[in-house]
Amino acid sequence: MNALVPLPVVLPLCVTGLKLAIGPRLHRFQRFISIAVLGAVLVLSVVLMVSADRHGPLSVHLGDFAPPVGITLVADRLAGLMLTVSSAVTLLVLVYSLGQGMADRDDQAPVGVFHPAYLILVAGVSCTFLAGDLVNLYVGFEIMLVASFVLLTIGGTATRIRAGSTYVIISLFSSVLFLVAIAMTYAVAGTVNLAQLAERLQEVPPGVRTLLEAMLLTVFAIKAAVFPLAAWLPDSYPTAPAPVTAVFAGLLTKVGVYSMLRTQTLLFPGHRLGDLLMLAALASMVVGILGAVAQTDLKRVLSFTLISHIGYMVFGIALAGGGGISGAIVYVAHHITVQTTLFLVAGLIERRDGTTELTRLGGLARTAPLLAVLFFVPAMNLAGIPPLSGFIGKLGLMRAGVADGGGWAWALVAGSAATSLLTLYVMAKVWNLAFWRDAPPGAEEEGVVLESAEDDDTDDETGDDEEGRAPGSAETPGSGEASGSGEASGSGRPAEAGSGLPVPAGAVVSAGFLGQSITTTKHLPWPMLVATGAAVALGLSYTVLGGPLTTFTQAAATELLARTPYIEAVLGR
Protein backbone atom coordinates (compact mmCIF):
# COMPACT_ATOMS: atom_id res chain seq x y z
CA MET A 1 0.00 0.00 0.00
CA ASN A 2 2.91 2.38 0.67
CA ALA A 3 3.84 2.16 -3.02
CA LEU A 4 0.63 4.04 -3.89
CA VAL A 5 1.65 7.16 -1.95
CA PRO A 6 3.69 8.85 -4.76
CA LEU A 7 1.12 8.21 -7.49
CA PRO A 8 -1.07 11.32 -6.91
CA VAL A 9 2.04 13.35 -7.73
CA VAL A 10 3.58 11.15 -10.41
CA LEU A 11 0.49 10.42 -12.54
CA PRO A 12 -0.41 14.06 -13.40
CA LEU A 13 3.25 14.84 -14.20
CA CYS A 14 3.58 11.83 -16.52
CA VAL A 15 0.38 12.71 -18.35
CA THR A 16 1.57 16.32 -18.63
CA GLY A 17 4.64 15.09 -20.52
CA LEU A 18 2.38 13.10 -22.82
CA LYS A 19 0.20 16.14 -23.46
CA LEU A 20 3.16 18.35 -24.27
CA ALA A 21 4.32 15.72 -26.76
CA ILE A 22 0.86 15.63 -28.37
CA GLY A 23 0.65 19.41 -28.56
CA PRO A 24 -2.58 21.01 -29.80
CA ARG A 25 -3.73 17.89 -31.65
CA LEU A 26 -6.24 15.18 -30.70
CA HIS A 27 -8.59 17.31 -28.63
CA ARG A 28 -10.92 14.48 -27.66
CA PHE A 29 -8.04 12.27 -26.57
CA GLN A 30 -6.58 15.14 -24.53
CA ARG A 31 -9.89 15.65 -22.76
CA PHE A 32 -10.25 11.93 -22.12
CA ILE A 33 -6.83 11.42 -20.58
CA SER A 34 -7.18 14.57 -18.44
CA ILE A 35 -10.44 13.33 -16.95
CA ALA A 36 -9.08 9.79 -16.66
CA VAL A 37 -5.95 10.78 -14.76
CA LEU A 38 -7.85 13.03 -12.33
CA GLY A 39 -10.38 10.26 -11.81
CA ALA A 40 -7.51 7.88 -11.05
CA VAL A 41 -6.01 10.38 -8.61
CA LEU A 42 -9.39 10.66 -6.86
CA VAL A 43 -9.64 6.87 -6.49
CA LEU A 44 -6.06 6.69 -5.19
CA SER A 45 -6.78 9.47 -2.71
CA VAL A 46 -9.79 7.63 -1.31
CA VAL A 47 -7.75 4.42 -1.00
CA LEU A 48 -4.95 6.26 0.83
CA MET A 49 -7.41 8.00 3.16
CA VAL A 50 -9.17 4.74 4.09
CA SER A 51 -5.88 2.90 4.53
CA ALA A 52 -4.42 5.65 6.72
CA ASP A 53 -7.58 5.59 8.84
CA ARG A 54 -7.44 1.81 9.32
CA HIS A 55 -3.70 1.16 9.54
CA GLY A 56 -2.08 4.47 10.45
CA PRO A 57 0.15 6.81 8.41
CA LEU A 58 1.71 5.47 5.21
CA SER A 59 5.19 6.60 4.20
CA VAL A 60 7.61 5.95 1.37
CA HIS A 61 11.26 6.96 0.94
CA LEU A 62 11.86 7.55 -2.76
CA GLY A 63 14.92 5.70 -4.02
CA ASP A 64 14.99 3.85 -0.69
CA PHE A 65 17.16 6.58 0.79
CA ALA A 66 16.42 7.02 4.49
CA PRO A 67 15.96 10.48 6.06
CA PRO A 68 17.47 13.00 6.05
CA VAL A 69 18.98 12.17 2.64
CA GLY A 70 15.95 10.79 0.80
CA ILE A 71 12.65 12.31 -0.28
CA THR A 72 9.88 11.22 2.06
CA LEU A 73 6.18 11.24 1.22
CA VAL A 74 3.63 10.61 3.97
CA ALA A 75 -0.12 10.00 3.84
CA ASP A 76 -1.91 10.19 7.18
CA ARG A 77 -5.57 10.93 7.88
CA LEU A 78 -5.20 14.68 7.31
CA ALA A 79 -3.25 14.30 4.06
CA GLY A 80 -5.67 11.62 2.82
CA LEU A 81 -8.73 13.79 3.47
CA MET A 82 -7.14 16.83 1.82
CA LEU A 83 -6.12 14.75 -1.20
CA THR A 84 -9.62 13.32 -1.55
CA VAL A 85 -11.42 16.65 -1.33
CA SER A 86 -8.94 18.44 -3.62
CA SER A 87 -9.04 15.62 -6.20
CA ALA A 88 -12.83 15.68 -6.31
CA VAL A 89 -12.89 19.46 -6.70
CA THR A 90 -10.22 19.61 -9.39
CA LEU A 91 -11.99 16.88 -11.38
CA LEU A 92 -15.28 18.81 -11.27
CA VAL A 93 -13.59 22.05 -12.26
CA LEU A 94 -11.94 20.30 -15.22
CA VAL A 95 -15.33 19.05 -16.45
CA TYR A 96 -16.70 22.58 -16.00
CA SER A 97 -13.83 24.08 -18.00
CA LEU A 98 -14.38 21.63 -20.85
CA GLY A 99 -18.00 22.73 -20.99
CA GLN A 100 -16.95 26.35 -21.06
CA GLY A 101 -14.66 25.56 -23.95
CA MET A 102 -11.40 26.75 -22.44
CA ALA A 103 -9.36 23.77 -23.53
CA ASP A 104 -10.94 23.58 -26.97
CA ARG A 105 -9.08 26.72 -28.06
CA ASP A 106 -5.64 25.24 -27.41
CA ASP A 107 -5.13 24.93 -31.14
CA GLN A 108 -4.50 28.70 -31.18
CA ALA A 109 -1.33 28.24 -29.08
CA PRO A 110 2.03 26.65 -30.03
CA VAL A 111 1.30 23.83 -27.59
CA GLY A 112 -1.73 22.92 -25.55
CA VAL A 113 -1.73 25.32 -22.59
CA PHE A 114 -4.62 24.70 -20.26
CA HIS A 115 -4.46 20.93 -19.76
CA PRO A 116 -0.71 20.65 -19.00
CA ALA A 117 -0.75 23.66 -16.68
CA TYR A 118 -3.81 22.36 -14.87
CA LEU A 119 -2.32 18.90 -14.33
CA ILE A 120 0.95 20.41 -13.10
CA LEU A 121 -1.11 22.43 -10.61
CA VAL A 122 -2.80 19.23 -9.38
CA ALA A 123 0.61 17.54 -9.01
CA GLY A 124 1.89 20.51 -6.99
CA VAL A 125 -1.10 20.41 -4.66
CA SER A 126 -0.67 16.66 -4.13
CA CYS A 127 3.07 17.09 -3.49
CA THR A 128 2.34 19.68 -0.83
CA PHE A 129 -0.17 17.47 0.99
CA LEU A 130 2.18 14.46 0.93
CA ALA A 131 5.50 16.20 1.59
CA GLY A 132 7.41 14.72 4.51
CA ASP A 133 10.10 17.39 4.62
CA LEU A 134 10.32 21.17 4.28
CA VAL A 135 12.24 21.10 0.99
CA ASN A 136 9.57 19.10 -0.80
CA LEU A 137 6.90 21.27 0.76
CA TYR A 138 8.73 24.18 -0.86
CA VAL A 139 8.95 22.28 -4.16
CA GLY A 140 5.19 21.68 -4.07
CA PHE A 141 4.57 25.39 -3.59
CA GLU A 142 6.85 26.27 -6.50
CA ILE A 143 5.18 23.75 -8.82
CA MET A 144 1.85 25.38 -7.98
CA LEU A 145 3.31 28.85 -8.54
CA VAL A 146 4.59 28.05 -12.03
CA ALA A 147 1.30 26.47 -13.10
CA SER A 148 -0.88 29.09 -11.42
CA PHE A 149 0.86 31.98 -13.16
CA VAL A 150 0.13 30.37 -16.54
CA LEU A 151 -3.50 29.75 -15.63
CA LEU A 152 -3.99 33.16 -14.05
CA THR A 153 -2.77 35.00 -17.16
CA ILE A 154 -4.52 32.82 -19.75
CA GLY A 155 -5.79 35.10 -22.50
CA GLY A 156 -2.91 37.56 -22.16
CA THR A 157 -5.06 40.63 -21.49
CA ALA A 158 -3.56 43.64 -19.74
CA THR A 159 -5.74 43.18 -16.66
CA ARG A 160 -4.78 39.54 -16.25
CA ILE A 161 -1.09 40.17 -16.79
CA ARG A 162 -1.16 42.99 -14.24
CA ALA A 163 -3.03 40.89 -11.67
CA GLY A 164 -0.84 37.88 -12.38
CA SER A 165 2.31 39.94 -11.93
CA THR A 166 1.14 41.05 -8.48
CA TYR A 167 0.40 37.46 -7.58
CA VAL A 168 3.83 36.26 -8.73
CA ILE A 169 5.73 39.06 -6.95
CA ILE A 170 4.00 38.25 -3.65
CA SER A 171 4.49 34.52 -4.17
CA LEU A 172 8.17 34.93 -4.98
CA PHE A 173 8.68 37.02 -1.86
CA SER A 174 7.10 34.29 0.26
CA SER A 175 9.21 31.68 -1.53
CA VAL A 176 12.44 33.53 -0.72
CA LEU A 177 11.34 33.84 2.91
CA PHE A 178 10.53 30.12 2.92
CA LEU A 179 14.01 29.28 1.61
CA VAL A 180 15.59 31.40 4.35
CA ALA A 181 13.46 29.63 6.97
CA ILE A 182 14.47 26.22 5.57
CA ALA A 183 18.16 27.17 5.65
CA MET A 184 17.91 28.40 9.23
CA THR A 185 16.06 25.25 10.25
CA TYR A 186 18.73 23.04 8.73
CA ALA A 187 21.44 25.11 10.39
CA VAL A 188 20.04 24.59 13.86
CA ALA A 189 18.67 21.02 13.50
CA GLY A 190 20.78 19.38 10.80
CA THR A 191 17.73 18.08 8.92
CA VAL A 192 14.60 19.26 7.12
CA ASN A 193 12.67 16.00 7.53
CA LEU A 194 9.51 16.80 9.47
CA ALA A 195 9.62 13.68 11.65
CA GLN A 196 13.22 14.32 12.66
CA LEU A 197 12.51 18.02 13.19
CA ALA A 198 9.66 17.09 15.54
CA GLU A 199 12.26 15.56 17.83
CA ARG A 200 15.25 17.85 17.35
CA LEU A 201 13.49 21.23 17.54
CA GLN A 202 12.55 20.53 21.14
CA GLU A 203 16.26 20.82 21.99
CA VAL A 204 16.66 24.18 20.20
CA PRO A 205 16.72 27.34 22.37
CA PRO A 206 13.17 28.77 22.75
CA GLY A 207 14.02 32.08 21.10
CA VAL A 208 15.38 30.40 17.97
CA ARG A 209 12.41 28.04 17.83
CA THR A 210 10.00 30.97 18.08
CA LEU A 211 11.83 32.77 15.26
CA LEU A 212 11.55 29.73 13.00
CA GLU A 213 7.88 29.37 13.88
CA ALA A 214 7.22 33.04 13.08
CA MET A 215 8.99 32.80 9.71
CA LEU A 216 7.12 29.67 8.64
CA LEU A 217 3.81 31.12 9.80
CA THR A 218 4.45 34.28 7.78
CA VAL A 219 5.14 32.22 4.64
CA PHE A 220 2.03 30.12 5.06
CA ALA A 221 -0.12 33.12 6.02
CA ILE A 222 0.79 34.77 2.70
CA LYS A 223 -0.16 31.60 0.84
CA ALA A 224 -3.40 31.29 2.81
CA ALA A 225 -4.32 35.00 2.47
CA VAL A 226 -4.51 35.65 6.20
CA PHE A 227 -5.02 39.34 7.08
CA PRO A 228 -2.95 41.57 6.91
CA LEU A 229 -1.12 39.53 4.24
CA ALA A 230 -4.16 39.12 1.97
CA ALA A 231 -4.26 42.40 0.04
CA TRP A 232 -3.11 40.66 -3.15
CA LEU A 233 -6.07 38.27 -3.40
CA PRO A 234 -9.15 40.40 -4.27
CA ASP A 235 -7.39 41.95 -7.27
CA SER A 236 -5.72 38.76 -8.53
CA TYR A 237 -8.40 36.08 -8.55
CA PRO A 238 -11.48 37.78 -10.09
CA THR A 239 -9.71 38.61 -13.37
CA ALA A 240 -9.00 34.97 -14.28
CA PRO A 241 -11.41 32.70 -16.20
CA ALA A 242 -14.14 31.25 -14.00
CA PRO A 243 -12.74 27.70 -13.66
CA VAL A 244 -9.28 29.03 -12.78
CA THR A 245 -10.71 31.45 -10.22
CA ALA A 246 -12.80 28.66 -8.71
CA VAL A 247 -9.92 26.23 -8.19
CA PHE A 248 -7.61 29.00 -6.96
CA ALA A 249 -10.07 30.40 -4.44
CA GLY A 250 -11.34 27.06 -3.25
CA LEU A 251 -8.09 25.13 -3.09
CA LEU A 252 -4.82 27.04 -3.27
CA THR A 253 -5.34 29.13 -0.15
CA LYS A 254 -6.15 25.94 1.79
CA VAL A 255 -2.72 24.58 0.92
CA GLY A 256 -1.33 27.36 3.11
CA VAL A 257 -3.80 26.47 5.87
CA TYR A 258 -2.81 22.81 5.61
CA SER A 259 0.87 23.75 5.97
CA MET A 260 0.06 25.75 9.09
CA LEU A 261 -1.85 22.80 10.52
CA ARG A 262 0.99 20.40 9.79
CA THR A 263 3.88 22.47 11.11
CA GLN A 264 2.10 23.90 14.15
CA THR A 265 1.03 20.49 15.42
CA LEU A 266 4.13 18.51 14.45
CA LEU A 267 7.01 20.96 14.84
CA PHE A 268 5.74 23.53 17.35
CA PRO A 269 3.41 21.84 19.86
CA GLY A 270 2.29 24.21 22.57
CA HIS A 271 3.33 27.06 20.28
CA ARG A 272 4.11 30.43 21.80
CA LEU A 273 2.43 32.46 19.07
CA GLY A 274 -1.13 31.34 19.79
CA ASP A 275 -2.35 34.81 20.80
CA LEU A 276 -0.87 36.33 17.63
CA LEU A 277 -2.65 33.70 15.54
CA MET A 278 -5.92 34.46 17.30
CA LEU A 279 -5.51 38.15 16.56
CA ALA A 280 -4.82 37.39 12.89
CA ALA A 281 -7.86 35.09 12.79
CA LEU A 282 -10.15 37.74 14.27
CA ALA A 283 -8.81 40.44 11.95
CA SER A 284 -9.26 38.19 8.91
CA MET A 285 -12.86 37.47 9.86
CA VAL A 286 -13.86 41.07 10.50
CA VAL A 287 -11.91 42.89 7.78
CA GLY A 288 -12.73 40.28 5.15
CA ILE A 289 -16.47 40.28 5.74
CA LEU A 290 -16.66 44.08 5.96
CA GLY A 291 -14.85 44.21 2.63
CA ALA A 292 -17.44 41.82 1.17
CA VAL A 293 -20.29 44.01 2.44
CA ALA A 294 -18.87 46.96 0.50
CA GLN A 295 -18.55 45.18 -2.87
CA THR A 296 -20.99 45.23 -5.79
CA ASP A 297 -19.26 42.67 -8.01
CA LEU A 298 -20.02 39.02 -7.23
CA LYS A 299 -16.46 37.80 -7.79
CA ARG A 300 -15.03 40.43 -5.47
CA VAL A 301 -17.73 39.67 -2.89
CA LEU A 302 -16.66 36.04 -2.92
CA SER A 303 -12.97 36.98 -2.80
CA PHE A 304 -13.48 38.97 0.39
CA THR A 305 -15.62 36.25 1.99
CA LEU A 306 -12.75 33.89 1.20
CA ILE A 307 -10.37 36.04 3.25
CA SER A 308 -12.93 36.27 6.03
CA HIS A 309 -13.53 32.54 6.33
CA ILE A 310 -9.83 31.72 6.34
CA GLY A 311 -10.05 33.27 9.81
CA TYR A 312 -12.21 30.36 11.02
CA MET A 313 -9.50 27.87 10.10
CA VAL A 314 -6.75 29.93 11.72
CA PHE A 315 -8.98 30.15 14.82
CA GLY A 316 -8.98 26.37 15.14
CA ILE A 317 -5.21 26.15 14.63
CA ALA A 318 -4.61 28.85 17.24
CA LEU A 319 -6.66 26.97 19.86
CA ALA A 320 -4.16 24.09 19.51
CA GLY A 321 -6.52 21.57 21.13
CA GLY A 322 -8.31 18.52 19.80
CA GLY A 323 -11.64 20.32 19.35
CA GLY A 324 -10.09 23.29 17.57
CA ILE A 325 -7.96 21.19 15.21
CA SER A 326 -10.90 18.92 14.40
CA GLY A 327 -13.14 21.90 13.72
CA ALA A 328 -10.48 23.48 11.51
CA ILE A 329 -10.14 20.29 9.43
CA VAL A 330 -13.92 20.06 8.97
CA TYR A 331 -14.03 23.69 7.93
CA VAL A 332 -11.16 23.33 5.46
CA ALA A 333 -12.92 20.45 3.68
CA HIS A 334 -16.23 22.33 3.74
CA HIS A 335 -14.78 25.60 2.50
CA ILE A 336 -12.77 24.09 -0.37
CA THR A 337 -15.98 22.67 -1.80
CA VAL A 338 -18.41 25.50 -1.09
CA GLN A 339 -16.12 28.35 -2.16
CA THR A 340 -15.28 26.54 -5.40
CA THR A 341 -18.97 25.97 -6.07
CA LEU A 342 -19.86 29.64 -5.59
CA PHE A 343 -17.18 30.74 -8.03
CA LEU A 344 -18.44 28.18 -10.55
CA VAL A 345 -21.92 29.65 -10.18
CA ALA A 346 -20.44 33.12 -10.70
CA GLY A 347 -18.98 31.82 -13.96
CA LEU A 348 -22.40 30.53 -15.02
CA ILE A 349 -23.95 33.92 -14.29
CA GLU A 350 -21.23 35.65 -16.28
CA ARG A 351 -21.68 33.22 -19.15
CA ARG A 352 -25.42 33.81 -19.19
CA ASP A 353 -25.64 37.56 -18.62
CA GLY A 354 -22.19 38.80 -19.55
CA THR A 355 -21.33 40.32 -16.16
CA THR A 356 -21.01 39.62 -12.45
CA GLU A 357 -21.70 43.26 -11.52
CA LEU A 358 -24.69 42.98 -9.16
CA THR A 359 -26.12 46.36 -10.11
CA ARG A 360 -26.65 45.06 -13.67
CA LEU A 361 -28.20 41.72 -12.76
CA GLY A 362 -31.71 40.78 -11.71
CA GLY A 363 -34.61 38.40 -12.18
CA LEU A 364 -32.50 35.23 -12.29
CA ALA A 365 -34.75 33.39 -9.83
CA ARG A 366 -37.55 33.64 -12.38
CA THR A 367 -35.63 33.32 -15.65
CA ALA A 368 -33.02 30.78 -14.48
CA PRO A 369 -34.46 28.80 -11.52
CA LEU A 370 -31.82 26.06 -11.76
CA LEU A 371 -29.07 28.65 -11.53
CA ALA A 372 -30.83 30.15 -8.51
CA VAL A 373 -30.86 26.79 -6.72
CA LEU A 374 -27.20 26.20 -7.56
CA PHE A 375 -26.36 29.51 -5.90
CA PHE A 376 -28.75 29.38 -2.96
CA VAL A 377 -27.63 26.04 -1.49
CA PRO A 378 -23.86 26.77 -1.24
CA ALA A 379 -24.58 30.37 -0.21
CA MET A 380 -26.58 29.18 2.79
CA ASN A 381 -23.91 26.57 3.46
CA LEU A 382 -21.23 29.28 3.53
CA ALA A 383 -23.36 31.34 5.90
CA GLY A 384 -23.58 28.37 8.28
CA ILE A 385 -27.33 27.77 8.24
CA PRO A 386 -28.22 24.58 10.19
CA PRO A 387 -27.90 21.70 9.48
CA LEU A 388 -25.46 22.31 6.64
CA SER A 389 -21.75 21.52 6.93
CA GLY A 390 -20.83 25.18 7.42
CA PHE A 391 -22.84 25.12 10.62
CA ILE A 392 -21.17 21.88 11.74
CA GLY A 393 -17.69 23.34 11.28
CA LYS A 394 -18.49 26.67 12.92
CA LEU A 395 -20.25 24.99 15.84
CA GLY A 396 -17.23 22.76 16.47
CA LEU A 397 -14.87 25.76 16.42
CA MET A 398 -17.07 27.85 18.70
CA ARG A 399 -17.49 24.98 21.18
CA ALA A 400 -13.71 24.58 21.24
CA GLY A 401 -13.35 28.31 21.87
CA VAL A 402 -15.79 28.21 24.76
CA ALA A 403 -13.98 25.19 26.22
CA ASP A 404 -10.68 27.07 26.00
CA GLY A 405 -12.15 29.88 28.08
CA GLY A 406 -9.40 32.44 27.37
CA GLY A 407 -10.07 36.09 26.58
CA TRP A 408 -8.92 35.79 22.97
CA ALA A 409 -10.94 32.60 22.56
CA TRP A 410 -14.13 34.33 23.74
CA ALA A 411 -13.40 37.28 21.43
CA LEU A 412 -13.11 34.86 18.51
CA VAL A 413 -16.32 33.09 19.46
CA ALA A 414 -18.09 36.46 19.31
CA GLY A 415 -16.28 37.36 16.09
CA SER A 416 -17.23 34.03 14.55
CA ALA A 417 -20.92 34.58 15.32
CA ALA A 418 -20.84 38.15 13.97
CA THR A 419 -18.99 37.08 10.82
CA SER A 420 -21.49 34.30 10.20
CA LEU A 421 -24.39 36.76 10.47
CA LEU A 422 -22.67 39.24 8.16
CA THR A 423 -21.97 36.44 5.69
CA LEU A 424 -25.69 35.67 5.70
CA TYR A 425 -26.36 39.37 5.07
CA VAL A 426 -23.92 39.43 2.14
CA MET A 427 -25.42 36.30 0.58
CA ALA A 428 -28.93 37.74 1.04
CA LYS A 429 -27.76 40.95 -0.65
CA VAL A 430 -26.45 38.99 -3.63
CA TRP A 431 -29.67 36.97 -3.78
CA ASN A 432 -31.82 40.08 -3.69
CA LEU A 433 -29.87 41.98 -6.35
CA ALA A 434 -29.06 39.18 -8.79
CA PHE A 435 -31.96 36.77 -8.35
CA TRP A 436 -34.99 38.23 -6.59
CA ARG A 437 -35.54 41.73 -7.98
CA ASP A 438 -36.59 42.45 -11.56
CA ALA A 439 -33.86 42.72 -14.16
CA PRO A 440 -32.65 46.33 -14.54
CA PRO A 441 -32.92 48.14 -17.89
CA GLY A 442 -30.11 47.46 -20.32
CA ALA A 443 -29.48 43.84 -19.29
CA GLU A 444 -27.59 41.70 -21.79
CA GLU A 445 -29.52 39.89 -24.50
CA GLU A 446 -28.64 36.44 -25.74
CA GLY A 447 -26.01 36.39 -28.48
CA VAL A 448 -24.14 39.54 -27.40
CA VAL A 449 -20.50 39.15 -28.37
CA LEU A 450 -18.05 39.77 -25.57
CA GLU A 451 -14.83 40.88 -27.27
CA SER A 452 -11.37 41.27 -25.78
CA ALA A 453 -9.35 44.46 -25.58
CA GLU A 454 -5.62 44.24 -25.07
CA ASP A 455 -5.38 47.62 -23.37
CA ASP A 456 -7.19 50.89 -22.93
CA ASP A 457 -5.61 52.34 -26.08
CA THR A 458 -7.55 49.92 -28.27
CA ASP A 459 -10.92 50.54 -26.67
CA ASP A 460 -12.24 52.74 -29.46
CA GLU A 461 -10.98 50.41 -32.12
CA THR A 462 -12.59 47.48 -30.40
CA GLY A 463 -15.83 49.35 -30.15
CA ASP A 464 -15.71 50.13 -33.88
CA ASP A 465 -15.10 46.48 -34.66
CA GLU A 466 -18.22 45.55 -32.76
CA GLU A 467 -20.44 47.92 -34.72
CA GLY A 468 -22.43 46.19 -37.37
CA ARG A 469 -21.57 42.71 -36.17
CA ALA A 470 -24.63 40.57 -35.87
CA PRO A 471 -25.33 39.08 -32.47
CA GLY A 472 -24.21 35.51 -32.33
CA SER A 473 -21.62 35.95 -35.07
CA ALA A 474 -18.92 34.53 -32.81
CA GLU A 475 -18.58 30.83 -32.09
CA THR A 476 -21.72 29.39 -30.61
CA PRO A 477 -21.46 28.43 -26.94
CA GLY A 478 -21.98 24.83 -26.16
CA SER A 479 -20.40 23.74 -29.43
CA GLY A 480 -17.06 23.25 -27.74
CA GLU A 481 -15.54 26.28 -29.48
CA ALA A 482 -16.65 29.10 -27.24
CA SER A 483 -14.09 29.81 -24.63
CA GLY A 484 -13.12 31.48 -21.45
CA SER A 485 -14.69 33.96 -19.19
CA GLY A 486 -16.07 37.11 -20.78
CA GLU A 487 -16.89 40.42 -19.18
CA ALA A 488 -19.70 42.82 -19.76
CA SER A 489 -20.12 44.73 -22.97
CA GLY A 490 -22.78 45.81 -25.38
CA SER A 491 -25.00 47.55 -22.87
CA GLY A 492 -23.20 50.86 -23.15
CA ARG A 493 -21.72 50.50 -19.68
CA PRO A 494 -19.34 47.53 -19.51
CA ALA A 495 -17.23 47.00 -16.44
CA GLU A 496 -13.65 46.03 -15.92
CA ALA A 497 -13.44 42.57 -14.46
CA GLY A 498 -13.87 42.62 -10.75
CA SER A 499 -13.60 46.39 -10.38
CA GLY A 500 -17.08 47.73 -11.07
CA LEU A 501 -15.46 50.64 -12.95
CA PRO A 502 -16.94 51.59 -16.34
CA VAL A 503 -14.84 51.37 -19.49
CA PRO A 504 -15.75 52.68 -22.99
CA ALA A 505 -18.80 51.14 -24.61
CA GLY A 506 -18.19 48.04 -26.66
CA ALA A 507 -14.88 47.20 -24.97
CA VAL A 508 -14.01 44.70 -22.30
CA VAL A 509 -10.81 44.45 -20.33
CA SER A 510 -10.88 40.75 -19.51
CA ALA A 511 -11.06 38.22 -22.31
CA GLY A 512 -11.91 34.64 -22.90
CA PHE A 513 -9.30 31.92 -23.11
CA LEU A 514 -6.39 33.04 -25.32
CA GLY A 515 -8.20 36.30 -26.00
CA GLN A 516 -10.92 34.73 -28.19
CA SER A 517 -14.37 36.32 -28.30
CA ILE A 518 -17.30 34.49 -26.73
CA THR A 519 -21.05 34.93 -26.85
CA THR A 520 -23.56 35.14 -24.01
CA THR A 521 -26.22 32.46 -24.00
CA LYS A 522 -29.32 31.67 -21.99
CA HIS A 523 -28.73 27.97 -22.67
CA LEU A 524 -25.70 27.09 -20.59
CA PRO A 525 -23.50 24.17 -21.69
CA TRP A 526 -24.58 21.01 -19.88
CA PRO A 527 -21.08 20.04 -18.62
CA MET A 528 -20.91 23.35 -16.75
CA LEU A 529 -24.28 22.74 -15.13
CA VAL A 530 -23.50 19.10 -14.31
CA ALA A 531 -20.13 19.96 -12.75
CA THR A 532 -21.65 22.75 -10.67
CA GLY A 533 -24.54 20.55 -9.58
CA ALA A 534 -22.08 17.81 -8.58
CA ALA A 535 -20.10 20.36 -6.54
CA VAL A 536 -23.31 21.39 -4.76
CA ALA A 537 -24.06 17.72 -4.06
CA LEU A 538 -20.53 17.20 -2.74
CA GLY A 539 -21.04 20.09 -0.31
CA LEU A 540 -24.34 18.61 0.82
CA SER A 541 -22.73 15.20 1.31
CA TYR A 542 -20.69 16.67 4.18
CA THR A 543 -23.99 17.37 5.91
CA VAL A 544 -25.39 13.88 5.25
CA LEU A 545 -22.10 12.34 6.40
CA GLY A 546 -21.61 14.84 9.19
CA GLY A 547 -21.29 12.17 11.88
CA PRO A 548 -18.63 10.05 10.14
CA LEU A 549 -16.82 13.18 8.96
CA THR A 550 -16.64 14.59 12.48
CA THR A 551 -15.46 11.25 13.86
CA PHE A 552 -12.77 11.07 11.18
CA THR A 553 -11.53 14.62 11.81
CA GLN A 554 -11.44 14.01 15.57
CA ALA A 555 -9.25 10.96 14.95
CA ALA A 556 -7.08 13.05 12.60
CA ALA A 557 -6.73 15.77 15.24
CA THR A 558 -5.79 13.21 17.90
CA GLU A 559 -3.18 11.74 15.56
CA LEU A 560 -1.74 15.18 14.77
CA LEU A 561 -1.46 16.18 18.41
CA ALA A 562 0.02 12.83 19.43
CA ARG A 563 2.78 13.18 16.78
CA THR A 564 4.11 9.71 17.61
CA PRO A 565 2.23 7.80 14.83
CA TYR A 566 3.63 10.17 12.19
CA ILE A 567 7.19 10.02 13.56
CA GLU A 568 7.17 6.23 13.87
CA ALA A 569 5.79 5.75 10.36
CA VAL A 570 8.54 7.90 8.84
CA LEU A 571 11.49 6.76 10.95
CA GLY A 572 10.42 3.10 11.03
CA ARG A 573 10.34 2.70 14.78
From TrEMBL:
<keyword id="KW-0812">Transmembrane</keyword>
<dbReference type="InterPro" id="IPR050586">
    <property type="entry name" value="CPA3_Na-H_Antiporter_D"/>
</dbReference>
<feature type="transmembrane region" description="Helical">
    <location>
        <begin position="167"/>
        <end position="194"/>
    </location>
</feature>
<dbReference type="GO" id="GO:0008137">
    <property type="term" value="F:NADH dehydrogenase (ubiquinone) activity"/>
</dbReference>
<keyword id="KW-1003">Cell membrane</keyword>
<feature type="transmembrane region" description="Helical">
    <location>
        <begin position="32"/>
        <end position="52"/>
    </location>
</feature>
<keyword id="KW-0472">Membrane</keyword>
<dbReference type="InterPro" id="IPR001750">
    <property type="entry name" value="ND/Mrp_TM"/>
</dbReference>
<feature type="transmembrane region" description="Helical">
    <location>
        <begin position="328"/>
        <end position="349"/>
    </location>
</feature>
<dbReference type="InterPro" id="IPR003918">
    <property type="entry name" value="NADH_UbQ_OxRdtase"/>
</dbReference>
<feature type="transmembrane region" description="Helical">
    <location>
        <begin position="78"/>
        <end position="99"/>
    </location>
</feature>
<feature type="domain" description="NADH:quinone oxidoreductase/Mrp antiporter transmembrane">
    <location>
        <begin position="131"/>
        <end position="415"/>
    </location>
</feature>
<feature type="transmembrane region" description="Helical">
    <location>
        <begin position="301"/>
        <end position="322"/>
    </location>
</feature>
<feature type="transmembrane region" description="Helical">
    <location>
        <begin position="273"/>
        <end position="294"/>
    </location>
</feature>
<feature type="compositionally biased region" description="Acidic residues">
    <location>
        <begin position="444"/>
        <end position="467"/>
    </location>
</feature>
<dbReference type="Pfam" id="PF00361">
    <property type="entry name" value="Proton_antipo_M"/>
</dbReference>
<protein>
    <submittedName>
        <fullName>Na(+) H(+) antiporter subunit D</fullName>
    </submittedName>
</protein>
<feature type="transmembrane region" description="Helical">
    <location>
        <begin position="214"/>
        <end position="233"/>
    </location>
</feature>
<keyword id="KW-1133">Transmembrane helix</keyword>
<feature type="transmembrane region" description="Helical">
    <location>
        <begin position="240"/>
        <end position="261"/>
    </location>
</feature>
<feature type="transmembrane region" description="Helical">
    <location>
        <begin position="370"/>
        <end position="388"/>
    </location>
</feature>
<feature type="transmembrane region" description="Helical">
    <location>
        <begin position="111"/>
        <end position="131"/>
    </location>
</feature>
<feature type="transmembrane region" description="Helical">
    <location>
        <begin position="137"/>
        <end position="155"/>
    </location>
</feature>
<dbReference type="GO" id="GO:0042773">
    <property type="term" value="P:ATP synthesis coupled electron transport"/>
</dbReference>
<comment type="similarity">
    <text>Belongs to the CPA3 antiporters (TC 2.A.63) subunit D family.</text>
</comment>
<feature type="compositionally biased region" description="Low complexity">
    <location>
        <begin position="490"/>
        <end position="499"/>
    </location>
</feature>
<dbReference type="GO" id="GO:0005886">
    <property type="term" value="C:plasma membrane"/>
</dbReference>
<feature type="region of interest" description="Disordered">
    <location>
        <begin position="444"/>
        <end position="499"/>
    </location>
</feature>
<feature type="transmembrane region" description="Helical">
    <location>
        <begin position="408"/>
        <end position="428"/>
    </location>
</feature>
